[in-house]
Amino acid sequence: MKKLTIRNWAEEDRPREKMLHKGVTALSDAELIAILISTGNSKESAVQLSQRILFSVKNNLNELGKTSVKDLVRNFHGIGEAKAISILAALELGKRRGSSEVLQRKKITCSRDGFLLFHPFLADLPHEELWVAFTNQAGKVLDRMKISQGGVSATAADIRLILRSALDVLATGIFLCHNHPSGNLSPSREDDVLTERLKQSAALMNISLLDHIILTDTTYFSYADEARIL
Questions:
Q1: 213, β-bridge pairs
Q2: How far apart are CA 122 and CA 146, in angstroms?
Q3: What pLDDT was estimated at residue 1?
């Protein structure tokens, strides 16, 4: 008989599609295991087979993690060695994730924090690049990205791109940075215009422009420190 595959189900009942539309937390343990094994057997769908596997360990994932590959293959028709390995590997990853330390986000509390954040990316470059960091209300960095790359003395900036990216990560703060390969820290007229335009545009969305720094290999200029962002 033909195996009952997930592809034969109504789209709204398929675990993969359900995960995409509703998020991974909407899936049951059996549905998550069904994604790993993909197919059931001639009498059971992948979810039904997964439900029976879980029932055998009283629906306890810790107990399932103690099961051997040989036991899964021997006791459940439709579970071969590859599927059994996939199940146990996923459970082991979950266990290791639980014991891993949560990575601390970098935090920007002053201009020097911004300098240290961007310096590894912009120091020693022969051309200008414009970067931005997005922060939450606590000053923690949500994301960091390069906006544009220019020539020796200038680079362009798309304010719409910056604001769209800020909204994507629900940022409340923007920290702008670009380099001057010449070593001259003095802001140009274009730098002033960009700073003012971004500040005003971001304010319309309740996002603050925290600072705009210009860095060289060893030091930096800060609009905030010089009271040029009010």
A1: 177, 222
A2: 10
A3: 47
Q: Which amino acid is at 159?
A: I
How much of the chain, in percent, has pLDDT values that exceed 90? 63
Q: Distance between CA 28 and CA 22 in Å, rounded?
A: 12
What's the pTM? 0.57
Dihedral sign (CA 193, 196, 199, 205):
negative
Digit-coded pLDDT (tens) for 209-228: 999 999 998 899 999 999 99
The residue among 216, 130, 129, 142 whose CA lies nearest residue 173 is: 142
Tokens of 66: 């103690």
Provide, for the chain, the percentages of residues in helix, strand and coil under a 3-state DSSP scheme, each rounded to the nearest 5. 45, 15, 40
Average pLDDT, the chain: 87
Per-residue buried b or exposed e for 189-213, using 16+ beta carbons within 10 Å of the residue's own CB: eebeebbeebbebbeeeebbbbbbb
